[in-house]
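As agreed, record copied across for absentees:
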Amino acid sequence: MRRPLATTLMVAVPALLLGACSDESTEPLDVETALLDVIPPGGATNVDPNAPIVLEFDRRIGWGMEEYAVLHEGGINGPVVPGTWVLSDDRMTLTFTQDAPLMAATDYVIHLGGGLMDYNNRHLNLERHGFGLGGEWCTGEQLGPMGRGGPTGGHHHQGSGWQHPNGTYGMIFTFTTA
């Protein structure tokens, strides 16, 4: 039995339109995107100074979010390590490759801005797995006088891209190289 053309179009056109939409439209809107893994995790020791830093998420993060990830030498107020953060094509992995090997037997801090957003422009859930990966919230007190809006006008990692809705400045993960 043949279907009338109108019935065929009523079924086919919506299916085609749904298929033409971005695959992001199939992502659930009621589920928060979370930080899934940090390599190396906070508290790690004897980390290879040549190894990349890898952040994994359970869903896509927004374009441009690599600007809200930084690696500091020594502590949260230490110098920023020169290198490049690259977002994978599927936008679920953020990888940092340093320009030169990290210093031996030195503490480093991965700082993820609390304003990191997912593909749907919602804040990432850093705490779901972050604490289990050795993370801790970064407070204004940890940023020092600059982080408390002191005379210098603000820490260079303070502001809308760095502030989490809970008032912190994201999450930090400290590790030590071999």
About this structure: The first helix runs from residue 5 to 20. Strands lie at 35-39, 53-57, 69-73, 83-87, 93-98, 107-112, 136-137, 171-176. The longest strand covers residues 93-98.
